[in-house]
Structure formats: C-alpha cells, structure tokens
Design a protein that fits this description.
Length: 401
C-alpha cells in the first residue's frame, strides 16, 4: 500500500501523479507514450493509485482497435489540507481539496487586545470544526499549513519575530501550533505561500519559473525556480520590498534609504493621496468626502472611477515605482512570468498597465522572449497557499522531477 506521506519516494509514481494532474483526463496508453514509461509499469502504478483513491476513472476514449480506453484523472477529494492565514487583524482558515476548492471557510477578526495565545486557542478547535462541517474523515487530512506576514526569520530555537504581530516577539509559533493541533504543521511567510497557491491552482500552473509579487501593507515576493520555492540564505530570498529604487529616498524601517516599500504599500499610497489633496487637491475633495485623514485605499479607487485626476496620478506613480522594482526582478531572474497579487497589486487595471509600460521601457533587448506580467485572480490566496504547501510537502509533485 502506498503511504501518501512517502508517495514521492518512487520517482515514477510522482511523475505519473503530476502528469495526470496536469494533462488529465488521460488514458494509460497516452501516459505510457508521453512519459516514455513501459506500459506494464504504468499499469502497476495506476492500479496502486486507484486502490488508494488518489486517481479515478472518469470515462472512456474510442480506440482504433475497437477497445475503448479508460480515462484517468486526479481524485481531488481523496485528501484534503487546511490552510490558515494568521494576519494582524484577522485569522482565516479553510479546508481545501487537491484542486484548490474551498470546502469550508472560517473567519476570526482579531484586535490589538488579542494575544498570540488567543489565536492558538482558537486554532486548536479549527481542524475538527472544518472536518465535521464538511463531513470529511480525519484520516483524509494531510496537515495544516500556516501563512504569516513578513519574513519568517525563525531562529534555531524555533522563535519568530514578525513586526507588529500581536505585540510580541520571539514567539515559538511552530511549537505552539504543534502542541495545539494533532496534525503535521508547515509554516511560511505570506508571499511564499501565495506563490505556491499560484503554482498549484492559479495562472502559473504549468510555469516552472515565475515570481509572485504580493503588494499589500508591505511588498513581498515568492520565487519559484525549476518548480521549487527558492528561499535563499536564511530564507531571505524574495525581499523585493528592500531593494533600492531611490538612493536619495526616505529612510525605510529596515534602516536603508529609498527601498521600494517606502514608495509602494497601501499605507504609503494612502499617505501620498492625503498629502496631494492637502497641497493641491481642494477642488477634488468632492470625490473623497470632507475628511481627508479618513481616506483608505478603496476611497482612492472609487475617486479614480469617478474621474479624479489626482487619484489617477497616485496610482500611476505607484505602478511606475512597482514597475521599476519588477524590472529589477526580471533582469535578475528572467522568469517566464510575473504574477502580481494582493489588495494593492490587484486594486485597479491602471496599476498593471503602468507596470507593463515601465517594464517595457526598461527592458533589455538581449532577451528574445519577454516575461509575461499578469494580475492574479485568486481569492483568499494566502489560505489557499498555506494549504498548497501541505499538499506540496506530501506529494512533492514539483520537486526532483
């Protein structure tokens, strides 16, 4: 019997599962021909996977010899994972199947009064609650994945210290979760898990090299190289927020000057809008209301759609700055695709248009193929990505192939 937690040990099994997921429905003969694996080997693997319900038969295909070929597809409901997003103001969690369908979803708002121990106590009950509501047996749950904001920075002792995270530092988050939840736990930062969500379920499905940009309260990125998440030394890879775009710019929270995040983040965009209105925008106040200090990102989008010239300028400037940062990423990695996500990154098409203009203006002519730049259309990408890292760890479909 195949143990799902070790299914990746046999390379041919990994290849067959991945191929069926990517190309299915597909017949045994088509698998054998396309993968150059002898048909008896394919037949043996298929029988094992059918027995374990990892794949299923979904129909037939006419054959020139008269015998109809049986089509195979991944059984998305054979196993599930739970994805958790521990945000600074909310905890989202969901039961997810192997194709990224949200089967059950739970939301828990948090406040400054909450401590990380309160979050852990809430999460202690979540797996059983999600499974019960979905009528899914606990034996089908692969594990629980967690996405957190900011760089992990996990010490050898297992402590993490995200900024502005429930008023605490040196949090033994992994140990706390493992004590509270009786399932395997995986943890990573939001940008990395979002990249995995795009790899498994989004527009980058099928891409082997791409970069996901998460533009929200800060700027992060997840880098996929040869189908694997690249973390770099001490997990620092992907810190696009702290690449320099203006050496004479303002000081960043990291201590350097002119970092991308000093120009591109929801707080910075909102602050720029407020300052512009106060300096020269009195004639446009009717787009925003009279309380300039209460403006939020959504108000800027609404004002833009009503015809605000200043809102257009602010968002175009934001796209320009982000385009510079993305140009640097492209020059370094030459990825097949850049996927832009997050509340800021997907707030309006004008942002993507300006990013593309800036990248095109700075692109080197030595590249014969251009990197595709797209906007993510995924909802709840952090929760899905946290669930995807569990699936990725268990099946390892995109590693060592």
């Amino acid at each position: 019997m195949i143990n799902v937690f070790h299914v990746g040990k046999e390379l041919n099994i990994k290849k067959v599962i991945k191929f069926i997921r990517d190309k299915g429905p597909i017949s045994r003969k088509e698998l054998s021909d396309a993968m150059d694996i002898p048909q008896p080997t394919v037949t043996r693997i298929i029988e094992e996977l059918l027995k374990e319900r990892i794949i299923r038969e979904v129909g037939t295909l006419p054959s020139s010899r008269g015998r109809r070929q049986v089509l195979l597809a991944l059984n998305a409901q054979c196993y599930y994972s739970i994805g958790v997003e521990i945000g600074r103001t909310v905890v989202n969690s969901a039961l997810v199947d192997l194709e990224g369908n949200l089967i059950q979803f739970e939301v828990k708002p948090t406040t400054k009064a909450h401590k990380i121990t309160d979050v852990i106590e809430y999460l202690r009950e979540i797996p059983a609650k999600l499974l019960e509501n979905a009528h899914v047996d606990a034996s089908q749950l692969l594990g629980v994945g967690v996405g957190i904001p900011g760089w992990m920075n996990e010490t050898k002792e297992g402590y993490i210290s995200p900024s502005n995270f429930y008023g605490e530092t040196k949090i033994p988050l992994r140990a706390m979760l493992e004590e509270a939840i009786p399932y395997p736990i995986t943890i990573d930062n939001n940008a990395n898990v979002a990249a995995l969500a795009e790899k498994w379920f989004g527009k980058s499905r099928g891409s082997t090299n791409f970069v996901y940009i998460l533009a929200e309260l800060g700027i992060g990125s997840g880098i996929i190289i040869h189908d694997n998440l690249y973390r770099g030394l001490s997990g620092k890879a992907g810190e696009i927020a702290h690449t320099t775009v203006d050496i004479y710019g303002e000081q960043c929270t990291c201590g350097n000057y002119g970092c991308l995040e000093t120009l591109v983040s929801i707080p910075k965009v909102v602050d720029r809008m407020k300052k512009l209105l106060k300096l020269e925008g009195r004639s446009e106040l009717h787009y925003f209301g009279n309380d300039i200090d209460a403006i939020e990102l959504e108000d800027i989008i609404t004002a833009l759609e009503k015809g605000s010239i200043l809102a257009k300028k602010v968002l175009e400037d934001t796209g320009t700055y982000l385009g510079v940062g993305i140009s640097n990423v492209i020059q370094h990695f030459a990825p097949e695709m850049i996927v832009i996500g997050g509340r800021l990154g997907t707030c309006h098409p004008i942002l993507l248009d300006q990013i593309k203009k800036m990248v095109e203006a700075r692109e080197m002519n030595v590249f014969s193929r251009k990197t595709a730049i797209v906007s993510s259309d995924m909802k709840e990408v952090i929760v899905l990505g946290a669930a995807a890292q569990v699936i990725d760890d268990n099946f390892s479909l995109y590693s060592l192939l």
